[in-house]
């Protein structure tokens, strides 16, 4: 038995949460392997919209186990709120949610460091969600981090106090004004830690080993997108984890030869939230229209997402890095009514035509080269059979499949679970 992956191929918010929820039926276990509450995964069904930040998107299905892997960073305060919201909806989370002892904790002071770091960068800020992600991964790789399992070992309170004091010294060094009340933050944090400790903590690598041996079907849910990967994204305008398929191995403890299908999720256009290069970004009415019809506002921060045409150069980069085996195209419905669609197939870079992402992607030296395709006028959100989709929609899909040399196995035509066409 192998583990399948669902990953975002762009700058996040591709619709991973929706697809994980739709496909959860055919899996026993759904696992998150990286990132933290910088993620916002939206699920819609029974007229309700749910946004998940740390909890895997399989949580609404009965008899499925959801695992938060060692590669994830957990903010206990946000996590507790997320679970309380689910409890209020009648979802019994604790019986079907397991947490790796090796996952690192986001301290309130990590959030403050994030804020101070961004303020000190001025115009060069990353546009972080300010959830403390970067500082927590820095403590992890700097070997100063605090892992969930430490809560089971006596004396953890001293280590916690030492780390908080160290963070406070660091915050002072940034020399920027951020107001905070450490004792209030600490009380809230300790309360949430008590709650976290009451949940099921596991050695997830051993758990997955046993699950694979007993033929359990596992789906790993990526957060963020491949272009936000710490190594292969648009550095430094990235997040602080490996969002790509290799991250699932290190973030869960799964050997590479146990990876099965790799589903790459992309929007029929492109969006980005936060700073950083975006070659196909639109600054005109079409961009505005896509943002409006697509409701392109961040699920975590509410910030407006930048919108642009589909970029096949960066998509191919993501497909190659991840070893994508099947594609899933989201939000095609948002493009209905546009007379012409543009798709970037190459870049002009320093007077050369290139088909890969160069080392430096800055918008002034890189110009997208587009092919134009006829759009479709029909409203498609109620269609549930691929053959009934407008001819020009199907031509768009065929054009992408030919260029990307992969099949698009699922197309999504609306935010609801039901608005999903599996070919
Ligand atoms: P994720 O972070 O990859 O899970 O994606 P987000 O939830 O942040 O953003 C995707 C947004 O698009 C959410 O508001 C979804 O409800 C919505 N969505 C997902 N698929 C579709 C679709 O096919 N069409 C439309 N119109 N909206 C969709
Ligand atoms: P999901 O899982 C979109 C972006 C931020 C910022 C950069 C670094 O919902 O697709 P960080 O908080 O990690 O320090 O921010 O990455 N970013 C996301 N953009 N979707 C996300 O997650 C994101 N998580 C982080 O906007 O530009
Ligand atoms: Mg999102």
Task: Describe the 3D structure.
The structure is a single chain. Helices cover 31% and strands 22% of the residues. The protein has eleven helices and 20 strands. Strands 9-7-5-2-10-1-11-15-19-20 form a ten-stranded mixed sheet, with helices on both faces. Strands 14, 16, 17 and 18 form a four-stranded mixed sheet that branches. The chain has a two-stranded antiparallel ribbon with strand order 3-4. It is α/β, with parallel strands linked by helices and 423 residues long. The longest helix has 18 residues, at 156-173. The mean pLDDT is 97. A hairpin with a 7-residue loop joins strand 19 (408-412) and strand 20 (420-422). Bound molecules: guanosine-5'-diphosphate, 6-O-phosphoryl inosine monophosphate (IMO) and magnesium ion. Magnesium ion (MG) binds next to loops.
The number of strands is 20
Uncertain runs are none
The side-by-side strand order for the widest beta sheet comes to 9-7-5-2-10-1-11-15-19-20
| Biggest β-sheet description | 10 strands, mixed
Number of DSSP helical runs: 11
Report the mean per-residue pLDDT as an integer: 97
Share in β-strands:
15-25%
Helix content: 25-40%
* Structural class computed from helices and strand pairing: alpha/beta
The first-to-last residue Cα distance is: 24 Å
Bound molecules: guanosine-5'-diphosphate, 6-O-phosphoryl inosine monophosphate, magnesium ion
Q: Give the overall shape.
A: globular
Rg, Cα atoms, Å: 21 Å
